[in-house]
Amino acid sequence: MGDFEIDERLANDTYPVTELPLCQLRLMDDARYPWLVLVPRRPGVSEVFELDEQDQQQLWREATAIGRAMMAMFEGDKLNIASLGNVVAQLHVHVVVRRRDDDSWPAPVWGRGEALPYDLEAQGEMRERILAEVEGLELG
Questions:
Q1: pLDDT at 1 over 60
Q2: Is the pLDDT of residue 136 over 90?
Q3: What SS3 state is found at 95?
Q4: Calpha distance 39→117 (Å, rounded)
Q5: What GO molecular function terms would the record report (predicted)?
Q6: 3-class DSSP state for residue 139?
Q7: Lowest CB count within 10 Å: 20, 50, 76, 90, which one?
Q8: Is the C-alpha dihedral spanning 30, 32, 36, 37 positive or negative?
Q9: For residue 44, what are the CA distances in angstroms to 61, 85, 88, 136?
């Protein structure tokens, strides 16, 4: 089966935040939105149905808990949770807090406008905020 490795495109577009029971939690490098990516640490998996039932349930627990925490932190109007995989086949789940006043509302965030990369200070601050929230979550 091999060892887990993150797809190079995901690695280039995100910053690592922490390790959850199943997933790497990563911050998307687009400061326009509170946007996290969950990457299950299972090699060769590109679809949710390729995970065993226990991992499928764990993935949903992690996405749900992270989404709930992010909505509270950022006072979102809507939470988008999606697994697209059209560009990066490796299974990954986007958790994006949306606000009616964001750059893309009400359209999807994918392929809209130019990403606004984090500067080092803002990226570090966001990572610390997320870590503080994640520490108290029941994830499995």
A1: no
A2: no
A3: strand
A4: 20
A5: catalytic activity
A6: coil
A7: 50
A8: negative
A9: 21, 13, 12, 31
